[in-house]
Amino acid sequence: MAQKDNIILIGMPGAGKSTLGIVLAKIMNYDFMDADLVIQNQCDKTLQKLIDACGPEGFIEVENQILSDIQASKSIIATGGSAVYSDEAMRHLAEIGTVVYLQISYDELVSRLHDLQERGVVLKGGIGMSLRELYDERKPLYEQYAEITIDVNDLSITAAARKVADALK
Question: What is the annotated signal peptide range for this record (predicted)?
């Protein structure tokens, strides 16, 4: 049985999972793993090229497989925003760590995100899917899997990382 000594960050694209994760890893003396980069390295393609090649459902299958195989210890793991579409992967991540949802409001999301296409964001509803639809679709999934929810609206990355670290004590 794997030790449950990792911190798994989930949340919308732009919530700060990767950036905050690096700062949190320094605060807690943990390693840092960006799941999106693991996927890119294993597939030798950018996320957007993978989504273009496989389609949203195919990408979710690839992401599910890779996330389900992650083995780590004392690591901050920043997942892609679409990780919550994969129940198998989320169950595995919850077994090896504490799942922390970095919650941001829709208005904050709009101010942080500029181009979804460049970020390699999975739009299950297709290219025409609006940011609002994406937010409304994913929010209940983040809430379902979260063990700890941290509101990071209007916080600097460092302040948000400290808030997460304090919540984990």
Answer: none
User: Which residues does 91 contact at the CB level (< 8 Å), separation at least 6?
Assistant: none
Domain boundaries, the chain: 6-163
Residues that constitute the known binding site for Mg(2+): 18
- Annotated binding residues: 14-19, 36, 81, 119, 138
C-alpha closest to that of 142 among 103, 95, 94, 89: 103
Contacts of 74 (CB under 8 A, 6+ apart): 5, 6, 29, 30, 31
What CA dihedral angle connects 137, 49, 72 and 169, to 10 degrees? -40
Q: Which residues are annotated as a binding site for substrate?
A: 36, 81, 138
What is the CATH code of the structural domain delimited by 6-163?
Answer: 3.40.50.300
Mean pLDDT for the chain overall? 91
Note the pTM of the prediction, 2 decimals: 0.93
**56-107 tens-digit pLDDT:** 899 999 999 999 999 999 999 999 999 999 999 999 999 999 999 999 999 9
> Picking from 46-55, 124-133, 145-154, which range would have the lowest pLDDT averaged per residue?
124-133
